[in-house]
Design a protein that fits this description.
- The chain is mostly helical.
- The mean pLDDT is 86.
Length: 114
């Protein structure tokens, strides 16, 4: 409970410290997020299955689009709310996750398709 209270108290401090570097890191996140989005849209269920537990094994285009639109917006909101150095940790960690997911899709033969 103490951690939740500290996080809630830190939220207003986050936006005040937003700078160009934060924008650049968030843009990098969105680039790899979009790449993962595009490859997820290309999954052919006869050959591959989605491994994200928040999506079905064979998600529809609508399900994929809703998921990635929501998670992209949520990522930006959290990044905006967090003060540094937590913001940078959040951004870099999720960039790494997205790169790993994109690479996994690419190795499986799934290509970028919007």
């Amino acid at each position: 409970m103490k951690k939740l209270i500290l996080i809630l108290l830190a939220v207003p401090a986050g936006a005040a410290g937003w700078g160009r570097a934060d924008t650049a890191w968030e843009a990098a996140f969105f680039a790899v997020h979009a790449a993962d989005w595009g490859t997820t849209l290309d999954i052919q269920c006869e050959e591959y299955q989605e491994n994200n537990p928040l999506l079905s094994k064979c998600p529809s285009r609508g399900e994929v689009n809703r998921y990635f639109a929501f998670t992209g917006a949520a990522h930006a909101a959290v990044a905006y709310a967090l003060p540094n150095p937590y913001r940078r940790i959040w951004q870099v960690s999720w960039i790494a996750v997205q790169v790993d997911q994109y690479a996994s899709n690419w190795r499986a033969g799934v290509r970028f398709n919007f």
